[in-house]
Amino acid sequence: MGKSVRETFRVPAEPDLKAIDPCGRPIGPKDKSAAADDMVDRGSRLDHLQEALYAQATGGGRRAVLLVLQGMDTSGKGGVIRHVGGLVNPQGLHIATFKKPTPEELAHHFLWRIRNQVPRPGFIGIFDRSHYEDVLVARVESLVSEEVWRRRYDEINAFEAELTEKGVTVLKCMLHISPEEQAERLLARLDDPAKRWKYNPGDLDARAKWWEYMQAYADAMRACDSDTAPWYVVPSDRKWYRNWAVAALLDETLTEMDPKFPQPDFDVDAERARLASLVI
Amino acid sequence: MGKSVRETFRVPAEPDLKAIDPCGRPIGPKDKSAAADDMVDRGSRLDHLQEALYAQATGGGRRAVLLVLQGMDTSGKGGVIRHVGGLVNPQGLHIATFKKPTPEELAHHFLWRIRNQVPRPGFIGIFDRSHYEDVLVARVESLVSEEVWRRRYDEINAFEAELTEKGVTVLKCMLHISPEEQAERLLARLDDPAKRWKYNPGDLDARAKWWEYMQAYADAMRACDSDTAPWYVVPSDRKWYRNWAVAALLDETLTEMDPKFPQPDFDVDAERARLASLVI
């Protein structure tokens, strides 16, 4: 029996991002059309699983899912939200986008704004960037001392363990692109007036420190990968493969959770009789 | 030239819900398949309009949309969120569901929990129930005195005028179903184990007061309809027609708003040159 999608993309114990091909297709569909077909199946299964998760919460269930998306600019965090998030009922999604912290956010502990966005029971939360920025940009741009960002690994692990404890299943995806692909995508944003709003001159400052970021990613994934809050490295140079891979990771995760519709806490036959007697 | 979708569904000055056919199709597609075709076109336009609205906000734009959904149980508020909300990028949607107020919510003014969920600039907010519950269930169930709920009409009008002032375009839909259709849908929820979680014995208590609710709806729409925060009555006995109608109302509203992608606040050629020089 072959490896699962989760086993295939799980970050290695000693992550070496140069050794992982951003264009790789180690499992699953080999072309866009096969991926599209598979997404239809996964989409309807995910939609059903999400509805059961939501329903379960209305019956007192405590479980939720948190999908953390990280990656360099243009790696496709927004695209995953659109194409994978778009597979399920928007009513069961909670999307949070973490930008440069505001003064109010900076005045609090770095996990404060994150805690405010943890998905409630029944929801699939998707984080577009996350608390990992506090060990990525914060480190590369020296926004805090090494002592501070190193301590954050433990704080993150404790926080994620707490989420698991509460019933939130955490999965984290690094959308792994090559610097060449990023250059093409940034150029496309500059060339197309309908895409220019996505471009930020600061993106180039981060690009200039590409390998420092890769080191920071590798270290963060090494320090904060666990069976209950795993990191996956998703080859993302091909958008269709990236979307398929994240959908498949979410599908495997929810399938294993196996959410169930709750049992009614009322007498079904009695309600049928009441309804029949209530002619309006 | 024919009426627009908005003109067609706009609540009459003296609303008489008995005179509006919940099964009517006064405009648009005559069958499900024609509606599905039209939804594809509207969906891609809505998606584009929503992206422009979102983009505009990143450039300092203040505009947002708020779609308020009201209707008796099973009228299809959730279905509209799934099928109409599902047409656009979930990242640009803000969905808020208002249930029976919590003790904390009750301790505040009735608009407090509503204000907390007003969509930020760039977003399409969808309210599954809303501040109108405070002049509907609150009135029919005598949760507050007549003096209190009557005063709320003015408070709602002032609040919605404030939203308009802030840049939030408000549209409100009453999903209008017949009591016969409700009976069928409630029975379906009782019969199907995967739907039972949506059933609440309290639904029958509200059903028993059907015509009191219709009076409360008519009065609320009469008191709180305006050109800047219009009420629409959407025939909702046919699910496909209901979804089409709400999508069309949203499409017309956003088309009129005509959101534009923002102009870049950086020198595009200079950025192209910087990018070209940044070989990683």
From TrEMBL, chains A, B:
Protein's name in the database: PPK2 family polyphosphate kinase
Listed GO MF terms: kinase activity
UniProt keyword Transferase, yes or no: yes
UniProt cross-references to InterPro entries, sorted A to Z: P-loop_NTPase, PPK2-rel_1, PPK2-related
Origin: domain of life: Bacteria
Segments traversing the membrane: none
Keywords: Kinase, Transferase
Domain Polyphosphate kinase-2-related: 37-260
Any one Pfam family match given in the protein's UniProt record, by short name: PPK2
Signal peptide (UniProt feature, chain positions): none
